[in-house]
């Protein structure tokens, strides 16, 4: 477990971030992303595409950057926990370019 994660946290989900190809400026922002860095999750309850939409964002000091979404079909439990006020966060575990797609792997964490 990286030093940036809470001392005791439970990994709820390991997944890829969906929609990275649709995020303007991500290619330029990508060098600032480092494996192990903490990320934030934000519910998008008014999404017209997915009732359980959860945004994945950078966290910490400075401007927040919207990276993409938790994948549809794997996000309902996380969305319900966020709606109920549980302290969820995420952590970047891997990044790699595959042609024009930025492959971002994350862990969704529940602080204990």
From TrEMBL:
> What keywords would UniProt list here?
Hydrolase, Metal-binding
Q: Does the keyword Hydrolase apply?
A: yes
Show the InterPro entries listed in the entry: HIRAN
GO terms for MF:
hydrolase activity, acting on acid anhydrides, in phosphorus-containing anhydrides; nucleic acid binding; zinc ion binding
Residue span, HIRAN domain: 10-108
Q: Which domain of life is it from?
A: Bacteria
- Pfam families assigned to the protein according to its UniProt record, in alphabetical order: HIRAN
The protein's name: HIRAN domain-containing protein
